Amino acid sequence: MFLKELTLYNFKNYESAQLALHPTINCFVGNNGSGKTNLLDAIYYLSLTKSAFNPVDLQNIRYEQPHFVIEGSFELPTGVQKVMCAVQIGERKVVKVNQQAYEKIAQHIGKYPCVLMSPNDTDLVREGSEVRRKFFDGLLAQISQTYLEDLLIYNQLLKRRNTLLKQFYERRFFDKPLLESYDEPLVEKGIAIYKEREKQLTAYIPLFEQAYQQLTQHQEEVSLSYQTQWQRAEDYPVQFKEALPKDSVLQRTTVGIHKDDFLFKIHQKSLKKFASQGQQKSFVIALKLAKFEMLCQHKPVIPILLMDDIFDKLDQSRILQLLKIVTRRKLGQLFITDTNPERMEQLMKALSLRARIFHIQQGGIERTYEV
User: Fold this and answer.
1) pTM of the entire structure?
2) Which domain holds residue 253?
3) Are 121 and 288 in contact (CB under 8 A)?
């Protein structure tokens, strides 16, 4: 699978743009703020129906415009498929494939898989458990529609239950039967999500460890583990009910799969506390490489790989090793952004790679050439 063409209208800083893309490697080069990352985000939208950087759709519309449209033509083994994503003020977001809209936009997830590496990825190390859960949920959602549906239902039920707990506290009354009507489906979906996370992490962790060792050439020892309250699924309903008094006081559901976390370590110590910035960046790049490998194993097409300004805080040896890894024979289509066109050209030549380079300037394509 590869993206043949990309067209933007009123998306972020682009009034309009149309790009004919290389089937393997495309490099967007230009100054900071010129719009390189916005092109990657447009591709991300076509894959996952949302922005990777701003979850508020309306804020991705170009200033003082009523809507944006992103269109892309994907070449698949079955033929060309045209994907369109449109957001208009006052209207629901629309996603279409070959002019056919979805009943539920979530049905689109996983059909055109992609993986994004960006400078924000180190938030996986620095921030709280919610960011790490979101990362792994994003992977599993692209692998399994059932997992995505279970997660959406679970989050809806959780939100309603938390609203009830807050209302009970504020109004000084408690309706136990009403609250329990949410408990059983929450437990049911929670167990299903927990089991799928545990199953998929068993396969994911070796891929991550292998990617890290390849990236660092076996110089460091790292580990990743799944931290959950549920060592056994049968414990889930019991602990859920036992937490009710605490839930009532804190006005939120205090146990469940929304409390799971993932522990990152280097040399058996906390990655957040003891790793350098370069080591942290290598760790999250390995997480993304393992995500790419997992999608390759589960999807009938090779995912698109988006790499946004990932060379910062990596030494030259790790940069070269990373590009060697991502350009191995399994590579599908790769998009890279960089502020330094000379570095990009030198790297392509050093690895004997063919690429199309787009010079970006203030929301426009200044020139295009191949190396």
Assistant:
1) 0.93
2) 123-298
3) yes
